[in-house]
UniProtKB/TrEMBL annotation:
NCBIfam families: GTPase_EngA (TIGR03594), small_GTP (TIGR00231). Residues 4-169, 176-351 form the EngA-type G domain. It comes from the Bacteria. Belongs to the TRAFAC class TrmE-Era-EngA-EngB-Septin-like GTPase superfamily. EngA (Der) GTPase family. This is GTPase Der.
């Protein structure tokens, strides 16, 4: 990243994610009264005065416990600190100094970057001064009394912090936003790590490891890609209100803000009902899509296996039959490097615009070969002309005499003709069937708007 990085460090449940949300000006990190909610390191942009920087939210540090994810969380926090220009050590002012705080302080004292002690949960100025006094004992420097919830005291902390950040010029370069979506434990975080060649996300056979949507920017062949790893999406009835609930909401928001979705499937499980629902949502949101069949190395194969699997994809994921498929192994790296090539093609088609003349050539040829059926009342649909009205996804308006005279089969026929003759692989294609009454209604609305 071209902006300086500030690592947020501390024990579990001292308010690190709340502080990150305060500094970034958005509720993006998941906040919940449960230790260990944040596990991976997540990056958020922040600014103070005329300076812009990146804050890194990390999991709660515990040095004397080797259970579950704690060793992996420590590794993530240490990686974040190695990239940082400064660190904010968050402690709980209401609880006072703990043995865990002292252990972290001992570790931070040997780091070669400036560290600022933020004594959180000091909602009262009078009480806050008393709460911070004890934290001089940590030997790191002046403790700052703050309230992450209300924002009090954060200004004084940031005034001092930005004096220690290098001035780095940010270059705003275009990028492709890629959301990695799928059920729990299909290998989304392993796929992200395979892209990066490092343990950027915690990988565990325990489902639900990833909870925040994690952004990472990589560059390949001069192009920038923002990879968004997301929480595994289970069926709604199986999700309790809490960290997993918020994580799934972050995953759906990741679909909203991306250009292309990598829908990751588990090759061993095949296409499940939940995979079908996710494919339907991607199509509804109008996002480009690449279907990534992961764990292909774990499938016993013969000369027909890939064809049988391809047939299963086509029949069960009919919502995204336009998406390209690739069979990979994040564990071995098999064909992972080919994914971005397919992403580039999908994004190009997602942003593509076709001239009105070309669209009408396709329509003329299509209707010559296959005219709309005549209704029982002896009336026949007629397409006057078509034009592309937007992209991302490509959207074509077809002006007809009466939309009700075109059944679903004929509408699919026209869409297939556009795809056959113009491409649009990897992206949904929207067709708007506009009749004479609709056009007259739009003219009336437009005239009324001009009068106002």
């Amino acid at each position: 990243m071209s902006l300086p990085i500030v690592a947020i460090i501390g024990r579990p449940n001292v308010g690190k994610s709340t502080l990150v949300n305060r500094l970034a000006g958005a509720r993006e990190s998941i906040v919940h009264d449960e230790p260990g909610v944040t596990r991976d390191r997540t990056y958020r942009r922040a600014f103070w005065q005329d300076r812009e920087f990146v804050v890194v939210d990390t999991g709660g540090l515990v040095f004397d416990d080797e259970t579950e994810f704690l060793p992996l969380i420590r590794e993530q926090a240490m990686t974040a600190l190695s990239q940082a220009s400064a660190a904010i050590f968050v402690v709980d002012g209401q609880q006072g100094i703990t043995g865990g705080d002292q252990e972290i302080a001992s570790w931070l004292r040997v780091q070669k970057i400036p560290v600022f002690v933020a004594v959180n949960k000091c909602e009262s100025e009078t009480v806050g001064a008393m709460q911070t006094a004890d934290f001089w004992e940590l030997g790191i420097g002046e403790p700052y009394a703050i309230s992450s919830i209300h924002g009090s005291g954060t200004g004084e902390l940031l005034d001092e912090l930005i004096l220690h950040l290098p001035i780095m010029e940010e270059v705003d370069e275009p990028e492709v936003r890629i959301a990695i979506i799928g059920r729990p434990n299909v290998g989304k975080s392993s796929l992200l790590n395979a892209f990066l060649g490092e343990n950027r996300s915690i990988v565990s056979p325990i489902s639900g490891t990833t909870r925040d949507a994690i952004d990472t920017v990589i560059t390949r062949n001069g192009a920038n890609y923002r990879l968004i790893d997301t929480a595994g999406i289970r069926r709604k009835k199986n999700v309790d209100y809490g960290p997993e609930f918020f994580g799934i909401n972050r995953a759906f928001k990741a679909i909203d803000r991306c250009d292309v979705v990598l829908l990751v499937l588990n090759a061993v499980d095949g296409v499940t009902e939940q995979d079908q629902k996710l494919a339907g949502r991607i199509s509804e949101e109008g996002r480009a899509c690449v279907i990534v069949v992961n764990k292909w190395d774990a499938v016993e194969k013969d000369s027909y296996t890939i064809y049988d699997y391809q047939e299963q994809l086509n029949s069960r994921l009919n919502f995204t039959e336009w998406a390209e498929n690739i069979f990979v192994s994040a564990l071995t790296g098999q064909r992972v490097d080919k994914i971005l090539e397919i992403v580039d093609r999908a994004v190009e088609q997602h942003r593509r615009r076709v001239s009105t003349a070309v669209i009408n050539e396709v329509l003329e040829e299509s209707t010559t070969w296959h005219n709309p059926l005549v209704t029982r009342q002896g009336k026949q649909g007629k397409i006057y002309y078509g034009t592309q009205v937007s992209s991302q996804p490509p959207t074509i308006a077809l002006f007809v005499n009466d939309p009700s005279r075109f059944n679903d089969n004929y509408r699919r026929y026209i869409e297939n003709q556009f795809r056959t003759q113009l491409g649009f692989a990897g992206t949904p294609l929207r067709l708007l069937w506009r009749g004479k009454k609709q056009r007259e209604g739009e003219k009336i609305v437009n005239r009324a708007t001009r009068v106002k």
